[in-house]
């Protein structure tokens, strides 16, 4: 299934990323930020891809923790790596946009602080899987679930606390000239996230098979 799915997703992601620059260039300039505002099309899309990867991580971790299905654990590892990558995209593009909008590179408000904490949780998950030793897969699954639980709070943080970050309610109200390139970019990031997730899960499956073969050879020796 993975082998059949990856070429389709890769082709779709290519289509989206070829079309995205055209739509973004044609989108009008925002009245106060001008050209810099177009970073938003990558910033928001990167976060949406990260949220998707985190939900995959959390759900796969729940399945592994309670059912001990190894393929779910492999999917969780793959999703955690994608979440870190797209989270970094959001954390890098955010200050590039923010320095024009706010006059500073960073503000330790609720949204930004929670975003950094969530990224650190994801990094901790990967470090635990790499260096935690026996039993770390179950402990990491708990971290994956915890990361997923943080996403709703991060998303609605601008609606609860006063923050320099724009409210999430702004996005659905965007005019078509701004909304079309935004949602096109979101679709592109989501599809490439799924493509990378498919390929990385397959790689993790093959790695696990190779480890089993090494153990079998050691037992025979």
Mind sketching the topology for me?
Layout: H1 2-26, H2 40-67, H3 70-101, H4 110-131, H5 136-160, H6 176-220
Helix pairs in contact: 1-6, 2-3, 2-5, 2-6, 3-4, 3-6, 4-5
How is this structure best described in words?
With 221 residues, the chain is mostly helical. It has one domain: Four Helix Bundle (Hemerythrin (Met), subunit A), CATH 1.20.120. The chain is built from six helices and no strands. The chain has helices at residues 2-26, 40-67, 70-101, 110-131, 136-160, 176-220. Helix 2 packs parallel to helix 6 (176-220), helix 3 (70-101) runs antiparallel to helix 4 (110-131) and helix 4 packs antiparallel against helix 5. It is globular, with a radius of gyration of 20 Å. The mean pLDDT is 87.
- What's the helical proportion of residues? over 70%
Structural class: mainly alpha
Named CATH topology: Four Helix Bundle (Hemerythrin (Met), subunit A)
CATH architecture descriptor: Up-down Bundle
Order of secondary-structure elements: HHHHHH
Radius of gyration: 20 Å
Mean pLDDT: 87
Count of DSSP H/I helices = 6
User: Class, according to the CATH hierarchy?
Assistant: Mainly Alpha
Poorly predicted sequence stretches spanning 5 or more consecutive residues? none
